[in-house]
Amino acid sequence: MAKITLDTLAHSYLDAPQSPEDFALKELNHDWTDGEAYALLGPSGCGKSTLLNIISGLLIPSHGRVLFDGRDVTHLPTAERNIAQVFQFPVVYDTMTVRQNLAFPLKNRGLPADEIRDRVARVGRMIDMEDALDRRASGLTADAKQKISLGRGMVRDDVNALLFDEPLTVIDPHMKWELRTQLKTLHREFGHTMIYVTHDQTEALTFADKVVVMYDGRVVQIGTPDELFERPGHTFVGYFIGSPGMNLFDAEIEGTAARIAGTRVELGARYPTSGGTLKIGVRPEYIRMGETGIPARVTRVEDVGRHKIVRLDVDGHPVAAIAGEGQGVPDGATHVQFAEGGVNVYENDWRVTPEGGDRPGGRIREDAA
């Protein structure tokens, strides 16, 4: 296990990058704490795999350094970093049995036969392949082969880090949940540093201690699932995490209040803004429908089983609200309000912390202009 430090790290696939837009990975400084489970989350092309491959040694960064426990490994090959990496598509030895595939990295390290047997048996149970340990890999399905790849990454307990690059793409949905659970169990048991790349927010939020959200080659926020949901540090985080994502309202700030669509919304604090573009972010869970507040019109209701998604029009902009199980759209619902504590303020897409720190806000006064 190792603490991984990214020191002024940046990468471009161009020979002579001239501007920030030429970089697939913009400058990043961060410490990955020894023994924590991280998820790199973001859309395709945001730099997730580039960053993972730099950590693993498959890519040499254009700028900056990678350190394991303070040791500079930037130019060391993958084999000398003592990491295990599982890729999006399965990499197995077809001529070997499942048992031989799982045992391969242990045999290479000269472990005793008894220990190899015990570890292979344990991992075989974890990936639900006990009954297939003596089958040749060549006859297995793609998802079974990927389970072998996962198992081969998990069978060692001496690695500096376990790296996963969208490893569950070919796994069926039910098995995805089981394997994520097993990865969490492995992490709790052995305390490996784990970095898991995915574009699926459910995978990221259920797997990781901390989620690293990436957008356009930048890390826009690192936080716990709760922090990312309640206090998105960037409008992209609010949009990308949550289903539906965060609602954004154009606003003007007036002291401790905002004006949205002609309605004054009390924020409960002052926000130190500097004249940039301002927006108020409110998740659908914190939208309340009624007869007072900001004028709104219900356009449709989507029943998704455990709750209803209410689609509204507010001043010509689409807004989503969530009505919990057993709730419906109130009769005469012509306005929306924001639940206390559910409001975030953004300037030029970045979250603004209120003076005095975060505290509940979002109460609406009924003195619409």
Please tell me about this protein's structure.
With 369 residues, the protein is α+β, with helices and mostly antiparallel strands. It has two domains: 4-230, P-loop containing nucleotide triphosphate hydrolases (Rossmann fold, 3-Layer(aba) Sandwich); 245-352, no CATH class. It is 23% helix and 31% strand. It has helices at 48-56, 98-108, 113-126, 142-154, 173-190, 201-207, 225-230, 235-240; strands spanning 4-11, 25-32, 37-41, 63-68, 71-72, 83-86, 161-165, 194-198, 210-215, 218-223, 247-250, 252-254, 257-260, 263-266, 278-282, 287-290, 294-295, 297-303, 308-314, 317-323, 335-338, 343-347, 350-352. The strands form six sheets. A six-stranded mixed β-sheet has the order 6-7-8-3-9-10, with helices on both faces. A four-stranded antiparallel β-sheet has the order 2-1-4-5, with helices on one face. Helix 2 crosses helix 3 (113-126) and helix 2 (98-108) packs parallel to helix 4. Mean pLDDT is 89; it is low at 360-369. Residues 4-241 form the ABC transporter domain. GO terms for molecular function: ABC-type ferric iron transporter activity; ATP binding; ATP hydrolysis activity. Belongs to the ABC transporter superfamily.
Through-space gap between termini = 60 Å
Instruction: Count the E strands.
Output: 23
Which residue ranges are poorly predicted, with pLDDT under 50 across at least 5 consecutive positions?
A: 360-369
Query: What's the overall geometry?
Result: globular
Proportion in helices: 10-25%
Radius of gyration in whole Å, from Cα? 24 Å
* Class from secondary-structure proportions: alpha+beta
